[in-house]
From TrEMBL:
Signal sequence annotation: none
Record-linked InterPro entries: PepSY-ass_TM
Presence of keyword Transmembrane helix: yes
Stretches of the chain forming a coiled coil according to its record: none
Keyword annotations from UniProtKB, A to Z: Membrane, Transmembrane, Transmembrane helix
Bilayer-crossing regions: 12-33, 137-158, 184-208, 316-337, 367-389, 395-420, 441-458
Organism name: Cytophaga hutchinsonii (strain ATCC 33406 / DSM 1761 / CIP 103989 / NBRC 15051 / NCIMB 9469 / D465)
Protein's UniProt name: Membrane protein
Length: 459
């Protein structure tokens, strides 16, 4: 199946048009949330961080106090303080309405609910688009898929200029709006791929599993002592350097998340999750360092998405990249309105007797393009890993995260083509070319990606 540039351009344009406003919102709010941990003590000084914030109390006492202070809610998760002057944080869901969630912090006078200040609104806008939890996750999943689609097709359309710029054959040009759009896209291509890929992984389970169901959570008070269960989970930690990050209350089970404090939120798989039965205290499951490198990489996507590793340098880089993503959306929108008056692509068609691309040439092109993706992803991952002392592992993990959309895309494509061939409702030539081009791109990128995934999984 031949790839038609006009059809790929059509995919790129419509994906950007449909998701434009949503991506603009996510990029602006994401730029702010890069510094969430630094802004929280400023916005909520009486709650998040204050002198001697950590109380000399047990987790069991904290758990029971929260249940007593908020009887209409049940505990979902308790977060341990990460710094000396930070306090305990918890998330609770409503017993009558599970969509009603509250964030509480333990102060010197007990548990206090997080007030609705601007940072809280920014976070809700970024995560749920100010919608209900499930609806917001579905929309975020679609926006993430669109961002990945725009990144892939953008690279495909402008691959020759990209190669020329990277090989220093042609300089960056900023003479026109199109130049600005293309060059900003080139600079932030990897970042857009990171954001789209990791957001897909984060939102995929929530979007396809449906709304959160109360039956999978611990809606009633546990009968055992929480501190005793914590003690029973300690022997299953990955190593002695791991500290308790959070406790999640599942139905008849508790999940204890331990991670290395240097690799926050389990970056590079430096974490262990221990699931214990609340009644017997026996181990139900252990994940994290006992998992394959593939699963550990997928579980590390939260850190890669929010940039909460590597310190202030990573946060600044993520924030600047978020601004660039906003500029891509704005310049892309301006280009679209400009081109509605005058079609941008050339009307001339390729001669019918043009020499067809041979299978060997197509294979060579596929290897070249995928190698650029792979090398770029691995190189960026290695650079991020320099801040954590593990460049090779970071490079491996990042390639896994960024190649994930190709696998997901192939599955979605298979479903789409199944319905298309069953119904045969659309027979127009342009539509057929569109589907052919989309299928070709998916197949070319899926095959080497699958091989890479098999290697990482076996490893």
């Amino acid at each position: 199946m031949a790839i038609h540039k006009k059809q790929v351009y059509l995919i790129h344009s419509w994906a950007g048009i449909i998701a434009g406003i949503g991506l603009l919102i996510l990029s602006v709010t994401g730029t702010v949330l890069c510094f969430k941990s630094d802004l929280e003590p400023i916005v909520y000084p009486e709650l998040v961080a204050f002198k001697n914030a950590q109380p000399v109390k047990s987790y069991d006492a904290l758990y029971k106090e929260a249940a007593e202070a908020y009887p209409d809610y049940f505990m979902l998760r308790i977060y341990a303080p990460s710094e000396r002057d930070e306090t305990y944080k918890a998330i609770m869901f409503g017993k009558k309405n599970i969509e009603d969630d509250i964030h509480i912090y333990y102060t010197q006078t007990g548990w206090k609910q997080l007030p609705d200040r601007w940072l809280h609104v920014v976070e809700e806008l970024h995560v749920y688009l100010l919608m209900t939890r499930y609806t917001g996750m579905v929309f975020n999943f679609l926006l993430s898929a669109a961002l990945v689609c725009v990144s892939i097709t953008g690279f495909w359309i402008y691959r020759k200029p990209i190669f020329n710029i990277l090989s220093f054959k042609t300089p960056l040009q900023l003479k026109s709006l199109a130049n600005w759009h293309n060059n900003i896209g080139l600079i932030s291509l990897v970042f857009c791929s990171i954001m789209g890929s990791t957001a897909l992984i984060i939102t995929f389970p929530s979007a396809f599993s449906g709304p959160v169901k109360a039956r999978v959570l611990q809606t009633e008070m546990i009968s055992g002592n929480l501190d005793d269960l914590i003690i029973k989970s300690i022997p299953f930690k990955g190593d002695s350097t791991e500290k308790l990050n959070n406790i999640t209350f599942l139905h008849d089970k508790l999940q204890f998340h331990y991670n290395n404090p240097f690799y926050k939120n389990g970056a590079l798989g430096e974490f262990t999750r221990v699931v214990l039965d609340t009644k017997t205290g026996e181990k139900v499951k252990r994940s994290g360092k006992s998992e394959t490198e593939l699963m550990r990489a997928l579980n590390s996507c939260v850190s890669f998405h929010y940039g909460n590793f590597g310190g202030l340098t990573i946060k600044i880089l993520y924030s600047l990249s978020g601004i660039l993503l906003s500029l891509i959306v704005v310049t892309g929108g301006l280009l679209y309105f400009k081109r509605t008056k005058k079609i941008s692509w050339n009307k001339k068609t390729v001669k019918a007797n043009a020499v067809a691309v041979t299978a060997a040439q197509r294979f060579k092109q596929t290897v070249t393009y995928w190698s650029v993706f792979f090398t770029g992803f691995f190189f960026i991952g290695a650079l991020l890993g320099l801040f954590m002392g593990q460049p090779f592992r970071s490079g491996v993990y990042l390639t896994v995260l960024l190649l994930f959309p190709f696998v997901l895309n192939m599955l979605l494509l298979a479903v789409f083509l199944l319905f298309y061939h069953l119904t045969r409702l659309i027979r127009r030539r342009k539509t057929t070319q569109f589907i052919s081009s989309y299928s070709s791109i998916s197949l070319y990128f899926f095959t080497p990606t699958l091989a890479w995934y098999v290697l990482v999984y076996v490893w």
